[in-house]
Structure formats: structure tokens, C-alpha cells
Amino acid sequence: xxxxxxxxxxxxxxxxxxxxxxxxxxxxxxxxxxxxxxxxxxxxxxxxxxxxxxxxxxxxxxxxxxxxxxxxxxxxxxxxxxxxxxxxxxxxxxxxxxxxxxxxxxxxxxxxxxxxxxxxxxxxxxxxxxxxxxxxxxxxxxxxxxxxxxxxxxxxxxxxxxxxxxxxxxxxxxxxxxxxxxxxxxxxxxxxxxxxxxxxxxxxxxxxxxxxxxxxxxxxxxxxxxxxxxxxxxxxxxxxxxxxxxxxxxxxxxxxxx
Length: 258
Ligand code: CO8
Hints:
By secondary structure, the chain is of the alpha/beta class. It has helices at residues 30-45, 67-70, 75-80, 85-93, 109-116, 146-151, 153-162, 168-173, 186-198, 202-214, 220-233, 238-248; strands at 6-11, 14-19, 51-55, 60-62, 98-102, 105-107, 119-123, 127-129, 165-167, 179-181.
């Protein structure tokens, strides 16, 4: 599939996916989300890809769902076509790790897309928000759910009800983003994190992703049991033997994803 609204570069085991609708500040429309979900599925099956980085432009990661596209839609249309449902499901189904590198605006669906990723690295220019309330609607792809889990009820209510933006410093303090770096260093920082992940055993990387995500779905007792059983199961891998032997022999581990 040839893409028009995203650019995908695969280099050194990392897929860099750039959102590319600069005229609309990377607003998410049907085409962009369907290209993105297709690209993510492609990354999952491409053995060369060990980590994915999603990035926007300097001014905007994404300024939300495309308002022009949605404006005249009826309830019947958005409900029956399940607007954005299948595409966003496909994005979160990817089992390889996904990092969002956010510079500038990450608003509405843009903030929600960033939160669909496994973690967010932000530039000091980043601004997060759920301003859908200003449009007479509300968040629809995670802004009341993932944001609440990330920053707690008080800030999630504040942002969703007032539509105010949260800057990078507040986002880091609140647990929405894992790191904040100067704008010029954003790409290096995100690629550096992706390279670190790409060096690990893909089996344990995917197991970590699955286990952390389960913590949002399960009661603690069940989550802890799931974690312990997956930990046990990693002893069936060659990479566990290699990783522990390498530590004791004081050398770098050579993981082979087995
Ligand atoms: N949709 C469509 N076009 C957009 C969007 C958007 N979300 N955001 C910006 N644009 C366009 C502008 O219309 C403008 O186009 P043009 O040059 O043709 O007039 C261009 O991008 C540049 O934007 P601005 O001139 O407004 O740039 P500023 O620097 O003045 O302002 C802002 C930047 C503050 C980001 C401003 O553009 C803004 O407020 N944008 C809208 C933010 C917003 O409300 N986002 C939420 C959208 S709704 C949503 O995301 C719902 C998601 C859930 C869907 C669930 C489905 C189930």
C-alpha cells in the first residue's frame, strides 16, 4: 500500500512513522488512520522491525481528529461506520513496542493517539489537551479513559471539562509522558530509546508490553499471577539462558529471539 498521509522509514530495526498532513497539523482523518493501522500491521510482520516510533511535525504531533471531515456526519453514520474504532483497534493490537515522539500540539485524537503508544517522549514544546468540549462533543478514542489512568481523575476531568492544554513539564510531572527533552533532541532521544529496546530479546520485550497493558484490564491479584506465569514461561527461551550467562560471564548478551 502506497501511503499519502504518513511516511514510513525502516532503518536499523526501527520503523519511523511520520504523520504527514502538514497543512492540517496532522489532523487524523479516515485515510491517515487507515494508513497508520496498515503500517502498524506491516511493522508487526516485518522481521526487520523491532521497535516503532511515531512522530509528527515540529509544530504538531497531531491537532486532533479532522474536524472538517466530521462536521456534517450524522449519528447514524458515525455509529454504523464505528468512526475510528477499527483503525484504532488495529493500532493498539501491535505487539511490538511503539514510542510516541511528541513535539507541539497533541490535541484531541492526537493526544489519544499518543496515549495509544506504549510511552510518550515529549519535546519541551509539547502541548497536550482534550479540547473536544469546545466543539460540542467529547473525547472518543481514549481521552476520558487512558488519560484518566495516566494522570488521575482530577487532571483528566480538568482537561476534558475545560479543554485546557497541559505543557510538557506538567505532562511529565503528571505521568503522561516518560521524558521531556529540548525540541532539537527529540528525535535523537526517541531513536535512542528505540535502539535500546531493539537490542533486547523480542520475546521478553513483547511479554513486557503484554504484561504492563494487562495491568489496565485486570485486578491486581490476577495481574500479578499473569506476570509471574509469563516470567516463568521465559525460562523456556534460549534468550533467558543467554542473558543470564552473559551477565555472569561479564559480556554483552547476544539475543536471538528464541
Ligand atoms: N481538524 C482539521 N483541521 C485542523 C485541525 C483539526 N483538528 N487542527 C488544525 N487544523 C487546520 C486548521 O483548520 C488550519 O487550516 P487552514 O490553514 O486551511 O485554515 C491549519 O490546520 C492550521 O491551523 P491553525 O491556523 O488553527 O493554527 P494555529 O497555530 O493558529 O492553532 C491549534 C493551532 C491551537 C492546534 C488550532 O489549530 C486548533 O485549536 N485546532 C483544533 C484542535 C482541536 O479542537 N482538536 C480536537 C479535534 S476533535 C477530536 O480530536 C475528536 C477525537 C475523537 C474522535 C472519536 C471518534 C470515535
